[in-house]
Design a protein that fits this description.
Layout (H helix, E strand, L loop, with lengths): L1 E6 L5 E7 L2 E8 L4 H11 L9 E5 L5 H18 L3 E4 L1 H8 L4 E2 L1 E2 L5 E3 L3 E3 L12 E2 L1 H5 L1 H6 L16 H7 L18 H5 L1
Parallel strand pairs: 1-4, 4-5, 6-10
Antiparallel strand pairs: 1-2, 2-3, 7-8, 8-9
Helix pairs in contact: 3-6
Length: about 190
């Protein structure tokens, strides 16, 4: 089964092409270039979009706009290629890439998203001393999180990225494009201001 997987919920997007569990290629970039990455991966694997059997997308939580970009791209591809789509939580993917670590995604508004999922202030995280925290929120709020006794790997550590290869491997059920829903945790900034 040839699967195109990607996650755009954080500031760094990941995209992977996976064939029956084997990673054929993976790229990191900006959320707005996910289609370019997908095209590049398909070309490098000497495949075409028509060869795809499914699409898997990161459902967040993360940036509202970036998450919407990913969902729109996944739904558009799935509809145009007549393939099923699956959604996988960005937090679950971070956890899969860093077993025993706490996934922490930047939630803006001086908060982070953590499993639950829920949004909390970094200083209010409940972590055991020595717990490793990974993700964009762990990087952004390193000082506050380390003050709690937690460990944050260096900024360039791969464990901070929601690697798309894990999306493809964690997806368990595929369905219609409109069935995949984002995980927002809280209302978008625009609704708060209104």
């Amino acid at each position: 089964m040839l699967v195109l997987a990607f996650d755009t919920a954080t500031d760094v997007a990941t995209c992977a092409l996976v064939d029956d569990g084997d990673v054929l290629g993976e790229r990191t970039s900006l959320p707005r270039t996910v289609l370019v990455d997908a095209d590049t991966l398909l070309r490098e694997a000497r495949r075409s979009p028509l060869d795809l059997d499914a699409v898997v997308v990161g459902t967040g939580p993360g940036s509202f706009t970036s998450t919407r970009i990913g969902l729109a791209v996944a739904r558009g591809l799935a509809l145009s290629l007549d393939v099923p789509v699956a959604g996988v939580s960005t937090l679950d993917v971070l956890a899969a890439g860093a077993p025993s670590a706490l996934p922490v995604v930047d939630a803006r508004r001086k908060e982070v998203f953590v499993p639950g999922p829920r949004a909390v202030a970094p200083a209010d995280l409940e972590v055991e001393p020595g717990t490793t925290c990974v993700g964009s929120g762990a990087i952004r709020y390193r000082e506050e999180i380390e003050a709690l006794g937690a460990l944050v790997p260096p900024d360039d550590d791969e464990r901070h990225l929601p690697r798309a290869r894990w999306h493809a491997l964690l997806a368990v059920s595929y369905g219609a494009p409109e069935a995949v829903e984002p995980i927002y945790v809280r209302v978008p900034d625009v609704e708060v201001k209104a």
